[in-house]
């Protein structure tokens, strides 16, 4: 699970995350929405230890380690663009990553992970330089699976993916949540958020301006709520 309490971050004296409380349970997908500059990436940066918070606390998977250490132990991060070793094949990328984790997987184990993530078999032994964005996202999911991550953090994971790739990526994320992972996904894609997430929160000026359970809202209602909040602030 993810437990963020009273998180705050300032840049040059300006508060960009403001006493934020946000909880994501194991097995739950939470979409973090909000306009440009709302503080989504900064929140994720604090969560993963890339950014040092000015206040508050973050707990990942019940660990009492500081966020950067807890993230190494328990979290997988899928950014908008997945960086792979371009001259290694998909199988070699996964093998390299798993060796960094101290694991020595067999070829068959790696191929089973790639198969579960839906990477086409013809790509397994091709250099990653030729991979599409959707294929890279699948390798990212394989890394999360290989790690047995209890926390999955996604930043704009489906931007630039075609609808079919988005749907298949969403199914993978849901299967990780079904296995118990807590998933936090920052996105501008209200439609995908409504389809995939169990709950969502809207960040404005570093504060949660709204939070909804998505079973109770369709995509149109979510969009209306989103726009209403922005209109009230302007
Ligand atoms: N390293 C930094 N130095 C100074 N200001 C920063 C830094 N990183 C982010 N900011 C500012 O903090 C605010 C929040 O930015 P952040 O990237 O977290 O927003 P976001 O919600 O992820 O936006 P987007 O949807 O555009 O990615 C913005 O005003 C941004 O300019």
Tell me the layout of helices and strands.
Blueprint: E1 2-11, E2 14-24, E3 29-33, H1 40-48, E4 55-60, H2 67-74, E5 75-78, H3 90-100, H4 107-116, H5 133-147, E6 151-155, H6 163-178, E7 182-186, H7 190-196, E8 199-204, E9 207-213, H8 219-233
Parallel strand pairs: 3-7, 3-8, 5-6, 6-7
Antiparallel strand pairs: 1-2, 1-4, 8-9
Helix pairs in contact: 3-4, 3-5, 4-5, 5-6, 7-8
The structure holds adenosine-5'-triphosphate.
Adenosine-5'-triphosphate binds at residues 11, 16, 34, 36-42.
Describe, in plain words, how this protein is organized in 3D.
- The chain has 234 residues and is of the alpha/beta class.
- The protein has helices spanning 40-48, 67-74, 90-100, 107-116, 133-147, 163-178, 190-196, 219-233; strands spanning 2-11, 14-24, 29-33, 55-60, 75-78, 151-155, 182-186, 199-204, 207-213.
- It has a domain at 2-81 and 150-232: P-loop containing nucleotide triphosphate hydrolases (Rossmann fold), CATH 3.40.50.
- It has eight helices and nine strands.
- A six-stranded mixed β-sheet has the order 5-6-7-3-8-9, with helices on both faces. It has a three-stranded antiparallel β-sheet with strand order 2-1-4, covered by helices on one side.
- The two termini are 34 Å apart.
- The protein binds adenosine-5'-triphosphate.
- Adenosine-5'-triphosphate (ATP) binds next to helix 1.
- The site of adenosine-5'-triphosphate (ATP) has 10 residues, from helix 1.
- This is ATP-binding cassette domain-containing protein.
- Residues 2-230 form the ABC transporter domain.
- Keywords: ATP-binding, Cell membrane, Membrane, Nucleotide-binding, Transport.
- GO terms for molecular function: ATP binding; ATP hydrolysis activity.
């Amino acid at each position: 699970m993810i437990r963020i309490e009273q998180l705050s971050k300032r840049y040059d004296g300006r508060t960009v995350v403001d006493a934020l409380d946000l909880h994501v349970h194991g097995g739950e997908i939470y979409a973090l929405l909000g306009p440009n500059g709302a503080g989504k990436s900064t929140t994720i940066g604090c969560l993963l230890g890339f950014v040092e918070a000015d206040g508050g606390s973050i707990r990942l998977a019940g660990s009492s380690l500081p966020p950067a250490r807890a993230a190494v132990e328990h979290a997988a991060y899928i950014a908008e663009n997945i960086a792979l070793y371009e001259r290694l094949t998909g199988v070699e990328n996964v093998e390299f990553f798993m060796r960094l984790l101290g694991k020595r997987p067999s070829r068959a184990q790696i191929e089973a992970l790639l198969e579960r993530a839906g990477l086409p078999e013809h790509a397994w032994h091709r250099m990653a330089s030729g991979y599409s964005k959707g294929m890279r996202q699948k390798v990212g999911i394989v890394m999360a699976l290989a790690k047995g991550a209890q926390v999955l953090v996604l930043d704009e994971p489906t931007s630039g993916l075609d609808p079919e790739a988005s749907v298949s990526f969403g199914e993978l994320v849901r299967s990780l949540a079904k296995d118990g992972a807590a998933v936090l996904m920052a996105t501008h894609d209200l439609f995908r958020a409504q389809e995939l997430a169990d709950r969502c929160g809207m960040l404005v000026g570093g504060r949660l301006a709204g939070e909804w359970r998505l079973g109770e809202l369709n995509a149109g209602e979510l969009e209306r709520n989103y726009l209403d909040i922005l209109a009230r602030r302007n």
